[in-house]
Write a structure and sequence with these properties.
Blueprint lengths: L1 H8 L2 H7 L3 E6 L10 H10 L3 E6 L2 H10 L6 E2 L2 E2 L3 H25 L4 E5 L6 E5 L8 E6 L2 H8 L3 E5 L1 E4 L4 E3 L2 H12 L3 E6 L14 E3 H10 L6 H11 L5 E6 L5 H7 L5 E5 L7
Parallel strand pairs: 1-2, 1-11, 2-8, 5-8, 6-9, 11-13, 12-14
Antiparallel strand pairs: 3-4, 6-7, 9-10, 13-14
Helix pairs in contact: 4-5, 7-9, 8-9
């Protein structure tokens, strides 16, 4: 607690600037553990009048439940092939177990939260991304009316990445992509991706604390950004259609969210719109 109090005491100008603004936080299952402080940080931000919206993943939990029914997880280009049976497991795991566990943790820590999926209120509408992938979707529209109402009422919305298809079917979304679409629709001030790596590294292997949108695109094209970092970097770029700054942050670090937002000692990579970078 002393660590957090010290951080906040050094960050009053930043706190004032973000009060009344919206911050979308994407939480991956790999960053949530016994020592994790992401939910505590989210509650702290909400108490400081920052509207926090959480979008969560849960790929490891889905794979674990598929194993329990002796079903093999299959991936194409990093995306989970989602047939009807797999979609049932995705829905039960993400919109059920993972979502409600996060809401319960926030409530137990003194916060107020409401769990949603992209289906609820037509929050995220999608279409099939690629027939080879089955019920994997891409977002075509977002309606954040309910999210804004919950935030205004003092709750932290916690969103599972499932979309509503045009024929009423459920579609599995990449959580990074879903978070970016929510951030764009909300015209959020910041988009934060909490992950289990330090951030984006250059060709020399060194962490890049800050980069422009163009640099991020170049690093993807050149292969320096590769593997699982590609969808995160792409989601950062997409969010910049509305958001001023996107961050990929090492969520394993104590109070990583507070450090990245409110201090000069960030713990990840910040991607900014052209002309905004501070060097």
């Amino acid at each position: 607690m002393t660590d957090l109090v010290t951080l906040l005491s050094e960050a009053l100008p930043y706190v004032t600037r973000l009060a009344g603004q919206t911050v979308v936080v994407k939480i991956g299952g790999s960053t949530l553990g016994a020592e994790d402080t992401a939910l505590d940080d989210a509650i702290t931000l909400k108490n400081l009048k920052v509207d926090v919206v959480i979008v969560h993943g849960g790929g490891a939990a889905i794979t674990d439940w598929l194993k329990r029914i002796d079903k093999k997880a299959v991936f194409v280009d990093g995306l989970r092939v989602t047939d009807a049976e797999t979609m049932d497991v995705v829905t039960m795991t993400l919109a059920g177990k993972v979502n409600k566990d996060l809401v319960a943790q926030i409530e137990s820590k003194g916060g107020r939260a409401v769990g949603l999926s992209g289906v609820d209120g037509g929050l995220l509408r999608g279409q099939v991304k690629d027939a080879r992938l089955g019920q994997v979707g891409e977002v075509i529209a977002a309606d954040v009316t309910m999210v804004r109402a919950l935030s205004a009422a003092g709750y932290i919305p916690v969103i599972a990445p499932i979309a509503l298809g045009s024929e009423g079917q459920l579609l599995n979304l990449n959580a990074d992509t879903a978070a970016a679409e929510v951030a764009v629709a909300l015209r959020a001030n910041k988009m934060i991706f909490l992950t289990d790596v330090p951030g984006i590294k250059g060709a020399d292997g060194a962490l890049i604390p800050e980069m422009s949108e163009a640099t991020a695109r170049d690093l993807i094209a050149s292969g320096v950004i590769s593997g699982g970092m590609i969808p995160k970097a792409a989601a950062c770029i997409r969010a910049l259609d509305a958001v001023l700054e996107s961050h990929i942050v090492d969520g394993r670090q104590s109070h990583a969210l507070i450090r990245e937002l409110f201090t000069t000692f960030g713990v990840g990579t910040m991607v900014v719109r052209e002309g905004v970078a501070n060097g």
